[in-house]
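# step 3/5: fold
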Amino acid sequence: MNDTETAAIAAGIDDMYDAFLAADRRRFDSHLHAEVTTWETHLPGPLRTRSELDAYRDERDGSGARPTLDRLAAENKRIDVWGDAGVARYVLVAEAPGEPAQYSRVTDVLRRTGDDWLIVHHHSELVVP
């Protein structure tokens, strides 16, 4: 295991969710590969590119349905790196104002591109209590 690489991936994931809370889509997207596939419980089927993800977010945000959260954090991270490939598994905690926390199991597959680690596949499943 390469501690430097796993720390870089962990920091990137944390920054991505901090960017979401700050409504900084550009910074959030800097962690995503252009061909990222996004599979999440609440999405309308798998989104197979960032262009498809952008279209979904544009429609969601335009309708005023973008989630408002007090907290969005990746916990209990387990990260493995093999050369230029990495996998991060973690529990994503989302807390909306006045609502109980929601927990999702997440797996991100990453690829090193130059000095950056970019998510090429994101899979998130809501854990129902």
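# step 4/5: annotate
The mean pLDDT is 91.
# step 5/5: archive (pending)
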